[in-house]
Amino acid sequence: MILIHIDGIKGDSQIPGYKDKDWFAVDSFNFGVVRETTDSAKAGTDDITIGVGDLQECSFEKTTDRGSIKLMHHSISGGPLPSAEVHFVQTKDSSDSKQAVFPYLMFKLEPCFIKTWSINGAEDGRPTETVTLWYQKIAMQYYAYTKVNGKYASKTEGTAGWDQVVNNSWDTPKFEVPKG
């Protein structure tokens, strides 16, 4: 399951830990880095220029919900959104036989802008939206979970981030990890 929170956009998630904080579910999330490589060597040498990593925009696809109007409006107005977080979550049985929700992969974007927004619908279902975000900073964090004495313990595998304006690492992102 993939959940997103964008400051200023209402969400309708009913997932424990996410339902009171305006998170919404998405069907897919995409992000990538492209590095142009060129051969700069003379014949017979191994000199290769690896170029500069070019951060791509982030995009997601979702079913229309109560945040759709604001997403459309921000795509037209071009106004900045303070931050966005993307959580890939999994459920596990907790010690009290309930389902517990654990985020294992998280992305944070600050500030972000809606670069593109589109909606597509047909008569046989709810319309879907495709949204592309552009950002100044992006960070990624991963958690591994292990079960110890019937309870799950998490350990971060680290955080990595990049600030495109200063073209350097972004070392201080704060991720919100809901309790659910």
UniProtKB/TrEMBL annotation:
<dbReference type="Pfam" id="PF05638">
    <property type="entry name" value="T6SS_HCP"/>
</dbReference>
<protein>
    <recommendedName>
        <fullName>Major exported protein</fullName>
    </recommendedName>
</protein>
<dbReference type="InterPro" id="IPR008514">
    <property type="entry name" value="T6SS_Hcp"/>
</dbReference>
<dbReference type="InterPro" id="IPR036624">
    <property type="entry name" value="Hcp1-lik_sf"/>
</dbReference>
<dbReference type="InterPro" id="IPR053165">
    <property type="entry name" value="HSI-I_assembly_Hcp1"/>
</dbReference>
